[in-house]
Amino acid sequence: MVIDIPNVKKLKEREDISGINQALRDPDRYIRKEATEAVCDLADKGIYEESSIEPLNQSLEDEDEDVRWNAAEALYKLAENEVYDPSSVDPLIELLDDNNEYVLWNSARALRALAEKGVYDSRAIERLNRLLENKDEYVRWNSARALEELAEQGVCDPSTLDQLWGILDDPDEDVRNAAVYTLRSLAKQEIMDDRSVDELVDLLDDTDSDVRWNAAKAIEDLAERDIDVSSTIEPLNELLRDVDKGVREAAASTLKTLSTHGIYSKATIDSLNEMLEDSDIDLQLFAAEKLGELSESGLMYKSSIEPLSSALQSSEEQLRQKSADALLSLSQKGIEVSSATESLNKALQDDNDDVKMSAAMTVKKLAARGIYTGQSLDHLQKLLDDPNHRVREKAIEAIETFTIENAGDESVLEAVMDTLSDQNTNVRISAVSTLKHLAEQGITDDRAIDLINENCLDAEDEDLRERATLTLYVLVEQGIYQKDTIDYLEGLKDDPDKGVRRKATRLINMIENQR
Questions:
Q1: DSSP letter at 302?
Q2: I need a surface site. Which of 161, 249, 258, 374 has the fewest CB within 10 A?
């Protein structure tokens, strides 16, 4: 068959890869150009064969520049479809000295696609470095991306840094972004110098949000490698108010990482505290969430308590929840949040279950430090009737802590006894333990025995049965038991748990000795 351009188009229509491969070697440059385009078009449709690689490699050396750049693009598309061969690397590297910008950027991205598959040669680095100075932005962008991928594969050289400084302020935002990505990849390979931090600080003020995001994450990468990035604190703090949510998140994440490496400033907390009072609800939500996260990493100050307490009164349900979570995080890390007690008491009455649970857990933490109010206890008791079992769990856990601190009376006993019949096992476990603490303080009721017998001693949960026997110890020692208590305890003599069996036997002996 005589091959001409119309015939190449027919070959493409028939998806005749073999015929197109033949056309790639045709003496007519126009037919070769049409054939390379056909490979690209079919690859876009997911139609390709490995047999095209060899003739495409030859096309990379074609005298026609259109054929060369089409061939490089075709190899890129084949590699993206998992069709590639190491034999393409050498001719693609040679093309990095070409005079045509289309050839250059297609060769660079083909090398990047091959590097992603683990196929590369370090000889490409020097030439890609030079291309970072090319006048064409697509050449600079693709070269930076190829260097980034090579660095990800562990193939890199400090010489790339010198070239990167020249494009970190590139007029094209995509090129600047690619430069930062490459810088991050080099940092992972421990290739960096003192200029890195200063250059990145400048990029935190870039007009493009993606560049700002990348610069913040690059600083985080450097901090992870114990590089001194203390000079970035102030500009990162400013980014906490960035118009782009992703940038704000990146800045907060970086500041959190810095704090874990001993690099922090109270100004970070001050900025977030101020944001809690902002008119923008998105900023308020962001601030409450980040205050909680930073406290978890050890960066926390009492100055956050007041704005968080105020945020607990917000009409925005999500803000109340995040503020309650942040106060809980502060209390868990040892920050005294007793001044928030009034706000927490209101949060215990919130319509949102998550707010109530966070408030209950925070009140519990305060009670464990001997800080509590009768009003908190009243609200917690009301939560024992909440339809959500998770709310009831947190409420009874907090009440248990109150009773450990000797903060309990007959009204608490009454509420807790009702909870012994709760359908949730965890609620009953905390309830029976709470009865034990109350009994140790002389606050008891004979009715508690029947409730323990009926709801705890024959329960499926091993922990509940054991907690019940511990509570019975205290009650029996005080002469409080029922006739049928022994019957229930007899049933525990065959309990699978050795500890429960032993406690049951001892309790039976104690009761019989008191008769």
A1: G
A2: 374
**pLDDT digit string (tens) for 377-388?**
999 999 999 999
Specify the amino acid at residue 106.
N
Residue pair 353/391 in contact by the 8 Å Cβ criterion: yes
pLDDT (0 to 100) of residue 3 = 66
Residues in the chain: 515
Triad 182, 183, 186: Cα angle to 5°: 85
Is the separation of the CB atoms in 277 and 314 below 8 Å?
no
Using alpha carbons, select from 284, 290, 225 the residue that is nearest to residue 252. Answer: 290
How far apart (Å, rounded) are the C-alpha atoms in residues 185 and 156? Answer: 9
Q: For the chain, what is the largest distance between any 2 Cα atoms, rounded to a whole number of angstroms?
A: 115
370 contact partners, CB below 8 Å, separation of at least 6: 405
Instruction: Choose among 82, 78, 88: nearest CA to 43.
Output: 78
Extract the tokens encoding 400: 């248990």
Average pLDDT score, the chain? 91
Q: Is 421 helix (H, G, I), strand (E, B) or coil?
A: coil
Give 297: exposed, middle or buried? Use CB within 10 Å, 0-12, 13-18, 19+: middle
What's the helix, strand, coil split of the chain in %, to 5? 70, 0, 30
Calpha distance 235→221 (Å, rounded): 16
**Token pair for 55:** 């003739």
Kindly report the pTM of this predicted structure: 0.69
> To 10 degrees, the CA torsion angle through 430, 329, 388, 282?
180
Quickly state the pLDDT bin for 55 (edges 50, 70, 90). very high
Average of pLDDT values for 245-255? 94
Alpha-carbon span 41 to 476, nearest angstrom? 86
DSSP assigned state of 107? H
Mean pLDDT of 29-57: 93
Over residues 474-497, mean pLDDT: 86
Residues 319 and 289 sit within 8 Å (Cβ to Cβ): no
Cα first-last separation, the chain: 113
157 by Cβ neighbours in 10 Å (0-12 / 13-18 / 19+) ranks as middle
Residue 144 CA, chain-centre distance (Å), reads 28
